[in-house]
Amino acid sequence: MRILLLGSGGREHAIARALHLDPAVTALHVAPGNPGTQAFADNHVIDPSDPVAVTELAARLRPELVVIGPEAPLIAGVADALRRNGVLVFGPDRAAARIEGSKAFAKEVMAAADVPTADARVCTTDDQVNEALDVFGPPYVVKDDGLAAGKGVVVTEDRELAVRHARACGRVVIEDYLDGPEVSLFALSDGNTAVPLMPAQDFKRAYDGDEGPNTGGMGAYTPLPWAPEGLVDEVMATVVQPTIAELRRRETPYVGVLYAGLALTSKGVRVVEFNARFGDPETQVVLDRLATPLGGLLQSCAIGGLVPDQRLEWRPGAAVTVVVAAEGYPESPVKGDPITGLEEAAAVEGAYVLHAGTKVNEDGVLVANGGRVLNVVGTGPDLAAARDTAYEAVGRIRLRGSHHRTDIALKATRLG
């Protein structure tokens, strides 16, 4: 099977790695890719959010499947353009991808499908914002209605900060605060049927102890030893299947991965948000554990051929990923500094490094080229071993001014 994967981050490196390990995948292309994907795929330097450029590349490469990694190409209608040209795609079309592209639309779909989520109001004026903040009270939850790369949400006790964020965004969703730990669950969908992947937990705040600004994610782990028994079945029955059924009812069938960000509250499971693509960095640990070949699975979704009640195979043990971020991330990441020690990190048994924000400069030197620079994955028979492996590998990487959290999966290791 010939596959074209769109994207350039750590998530795409993880997807490319999993596709490379699928014996059925005979040729792998990534656009634009990164220095990590170059090791086992052909990179093509194009804008993955440009429908014309992507369809022209697909016409030239003639892939049997296009897999769309990031959210921006989905919202830009790249999947629509490819399908109009007869190309098989894993990824929702623009109408269905609004489940991520608009928080207000997601709330509308959840209300229609009776999916449990926080009470919310859509606000566009200062008066509406202040009224909503009065109704819900602190801690205030203010979400940019549009795409914000995982950084459009402010949760704060500071009312002035909440108001300033709302003004900066223009159109926001203000909602009730959800207590309890958060869980990410991905479900692969062919528009009718869905199959769940293994749940994971990520860490959004920049610094240890969940301090500092929100980021795109500083680390993740799976499995979750503390998750209640039957959680996945409950989420599939009350969240995923009703949402997919509602989108199908609206004649916008959802083909791709539906990412449910969940809060396990004192009142039960509640949806925090939906995303229309694999989460980053949770994908890095979830796909590490997946033993079922990924290429065939994604192709089944694209052709509408998922088997109801299909059971996936999983590798035993655990995986932990730690994000190495550039100096100044998330506010103003510093680019261009050399990265060394990757071979030493990969020499740690059970560890490997995924590129997230890197490039090779004109002198042939690998340098930082983004906020989240590397994802270091550690695996082992349990979470404690996987965590130790990840951090041993992180300790061998050198990037001036870089920072990473030291508490990824720490609490969970005490439970499993």
From TrEMBL:
Pfam families: GARS_A (PF01071), GARS_C (PF02843), GARS_N (PF02844). InterPro entries: ATP-grasp, ATP_grasp_subdomain_1, PreATP-grasp_dom_sf, PRibGlycinamid_synth_ATP-grasp, PRibGlycinamide_synth, PRibGlycinamide_synth_C-dom, PRibGlycinamide_synth_C_sf, PRibGlycinamide_synth_CS. It is an enzyme of class 6 (ligase). GO terms for biological process: 'de novo' IMP biosynthetic process; purine nucleobase biosynthetic process. The keyword Hydrolase does not apply. One of its GO terms (molecular function) is metal ion binding. It catalyses: 5-phospho-beta-D-ribosylamine + glycine + ATP = N(1)-(5-phospho-beta-D-ribosyl)glycinamide + ADP + phosphate + H(+). Gene3D superfamilies: 3.40.50.20, ATP-grasp fold, A domain, ATP-grasp fold, B domain, Phosphoribosylglycinamide synthetase, C-terminal domain. It comes from the Bacteria. Keywords: ATP-binding, Ligase, Nucleotide-binding, Purine biosynthesis. The keyword Nucleotide-binding applies. Pathway: Purine metabolism; IMP biosynthesis via de novo pathway; N(1)-(5-phospho-D-ribosyl)glycinamide from 5-phospho-alpha-D-ribose 1-diphosphate: step 2/2. Its EC number is 6.3.4.13. Residues 107-303 form the ATP-grasp domain. Its cofactor is Mn(2+); Mg(2+). SUPFAM superfamilies: Glutathione synthetase ATP-binding domain-like, PreATP-grasp domain, Rudiment single hybrid motif. Belongs to the GARS family. This is Phosphoribosylamine--glycine ligase.
